[in-house]
Design brief:
Layout (H helix, E strand, L loop, with lengths): L1 H6 L1 E6 L16 H12 E2 L5 E7 L2 E9 L6 E2 L2 E6 L2 E4 L2 H11 L1 H4 L16 H11 L6 H7 L3 E2 L2 E2 L1 H7 L11 E7 L7 E8 L2 H14 L3 E6 L2 E6 L3 H14 L8 E5 L3 E7 L8 H6 L8 H9 L9 H8 L4 E5 L2 E7 L19 H12 L5 H8 L3 H13 L3 E4 L6 E4 L6
Parallel strand pairs: 10-14
Antiparallel strand pairs: 1-4, 2-5, 3-4, 5-6, 6-7, 8-9, 10-11, 12-13, 14-15, 15-17, 16-17, 18-19
Helix pairs in contact: 8-9, 9-12, 14-15
């Protein structure tokens, strides 16, 4: 029974010592029947082993082969687990884990029927967009949900409602995102607060946007082009957001939340790590226990999730200082902020529209700041009046300055974002 609880099957021999020495066993006509009756009377749920007499080196032994998938098994009302070469009574916590593991598929929230949802509650537009991204065709709402395994016995599953319903919050009030910005490193003073309701894809987009709007955006220059550099790498925050919505415990009424402090951004997801995972194990990467397998599969179809077990590793590759915590009933991802460093981080200014000719002028003057208007016109093969007109436009757009006199000065290309 202890072996059954640990491995689900096993073999037990009477007549062989723990050291492997064959001792033999006296076998009477009633021996096998007595063993069978003892197993039947004292082990629950019932198991039906194969009991037979075998010989080793001319000595008789009894072999009992057994298997079962209804753990936890109990003997005389108590559950035991095989540890090393002895049987240990199973603790209450371990007993609960075994029961949950046994029933985990039946308990998965995303695979349960949404009793009150009808096909008319599902948005065909949302389904069409999803199927197009997944490389699948659309026939009807019912056909599409069936194709995606989001129907069971004609009933709509919770995952379908969360992903494609017109108003998921009508069925699940926790289909929500809560966001806040705080004035310091604690929650004493709130600067901004927002709540969003909707389907999973909408909430993921709003979460990304909220973090982007409330953290700094820096830049680096590649030639004359300005490349945006978020204070916290976008790939890391996006992966954490997707994980928060994909792997959260939807049995809990609470919502995913974002808290922006002056020194950090916290992403809080209801539900602790699933399936025996620990923070140490997820930091090592390569492991994945999916609480909501159906939701994860849908996100995988449209490349929101690229590879199982890769998410935490990706976050740490982009933001190595990221912390992971379990607080109460929440899993918390903490991104450290670098603040507004004048050398590398600054608020963005609105991008400026420029033409192809204006871009050519800027590139030439950046490489040769002392070039005259006449020489520039000759270089581009256009009239001097046209060059003067375009230089004025670039000055008005604050992309070009003239330093010094007309004869002895030079051009300064101003480093701004343009499109």
């Amino acid at each position: 029974m202890a072996i059954l609880n640990k491995h689900g099957k096993g073999e037990l021999y009477f007549g062989i010592g723990n050291d492997g020495i064959i001792l033999g066993q006296q076998v009477a006509d009633t021996t096998i029947r007595t063993i069978s009756q003892a197993i039947s009377s004292h082990i629950e749920p019932r198991v039906y082993p194969v009991i037979e007499v075998v010989e080793f080196d001319g000595r008789q032994c009894i072999c009992i082969k057994f298997s079962g998938q209804n753990a936890p098994y109990r003997a005389y009302g108590r559950a035991y687990m095989r540890v090393g070469d002895e049987d240990q009574q199973v603790s209450g916590g371990e007993l609960e884990r075994i029961i949950l593991a046994k029933n985990k598929d039946a308990l998965r929230w995303d695979k349960q029927n949404c009793q009150s949802a009808k096909l008319t509650d599902i948005s065909s537009n949302k389904l069409r967009k999803f199927l197009k991204l997944a490389g699948l065709g659309y026939v009807s709402v019912k056909n599409s949900l069936s194709k995606l395994s989001l129907l069971a016995n004609g009933r709509i599953l919770n995952a379908a409602v969360l992903l494609f319903a017109r108003k998921p919050q009508k069925f699940f009030p926790n289909a929500k995102l809560r966001c806040a910005v705080f004035a310091g490193t604690d929650s004493a003073v709130i600067i901004d607060r927002k709540e969003y309701e909707g389907d999973l894809f909408y909430l993921i987009g709003q979460a990304e946007g909220y973090i982007a709007r409330n953290t700094y955006l820096g830049m680096r220059l590649e030639g004359l082009y300005r490349v945006d550099v978020p204070e916290i790498p976008k790939e890391a925050t996006r992966e954490a957001i997707i994980n928060a919505f994909c792997h959260r415990d939807y049995h809990l009424y609470d919502s995913v939340s974002i808290a922006v402090f002056t020194d950090r951004v916290e992403l809080r997801s209801p539900g602790l790590l699933y399936g025996g995972l620990t923070i140490a194990r997820i930091r090592r990467g390569g492991v994945s226990e999916r609480r909501n397998e159906l939701i994860a599969e849908m996100l995988h179809r449209v490349h929101f999730i690229e590879k199982w077990g890769r998410g935490i590793r990706l976050i740490l590759s982009k933001a190595p200082d990221t912390l992971f915590e379990e607080v109460g009933r929440q899993f918390v991802t903490v991104f450290k902020r670098v603040g507004k460093d004048a050398k590398t981080v600054e608020r963005t200014t609105p991008p400026v529209n420029i033409t192809e000719l204006e871009l050519k002028i800027l590139n030439i003057l950046a490489g040769n700041p002392k070039l005259s208007r006449t020489a520039l016109a000759a270089n581009l093969g256009i009239r001097l009046d046209t060059i003067k007109e375009y230089i004025k436009k670039l000055k008005d757009k604050k992309l070009l300055k003239r330093k010094g006199t007309t004869s002895a000065g030079h051009w300064q290309v101003i480093k701004r974002k343009w499109k």
